[in-house]
Amino acid sequence: MLILAFDTATDLATSALVADGETLGERTTRPQLLLADVEELLVAAGVDPSELTAIVVGTGPGSFTGTRIGLSFARGLALALDLPVAGVSTLDALAASIDCAFPIVDARRGEVFVPGPLAVLPEDVVLPAGSICIGSGARRYRDLLMARGADVPPEDSGLHVPRASLHASIATSFGPADAVAPVYGREPDADRWTG
Question: Is the Cβ–Cβ distance between 58 and 164 less than 8 Å?
């Protein structure tokens, strides 16, 4: 299988080209640069888009806008190339990076997303014993988490990035792109303000 995987739910977008479990290339930039990153990955690997066999997209939780960028791109590309799509939670991809990982994604507004998924205050995170806190929320609230006894890798550790290659490695259910739903973890701001 030749999989194009990407996640745009956090401030750092990742994209990867994976052939039968082997990562041919991976990039980390901003969600707004996803299309350019994907094009560069394909060119660098000498792969024509028509050679892709599947897409894996990060479903969040994270930034509402970032998550929608990734899902929209996955749906458009899948429609154009007639490809199956699998959605993988950003939290699940982070958790797959290391044993005992406890993923924490910055939810903004003073909250974080944790497995569940749940949006909670950083001081209300229930930390499993022996876990290693990783992700954008772990980086942002490092001091608070460490004061509570958490193990948090250094600020520049790659463990804090939801690698697209990890999305590809744990994807299991491929199907129509429109069946892949976002995982928001809480109500979008627009719904709260208009409701």
Answer: yes
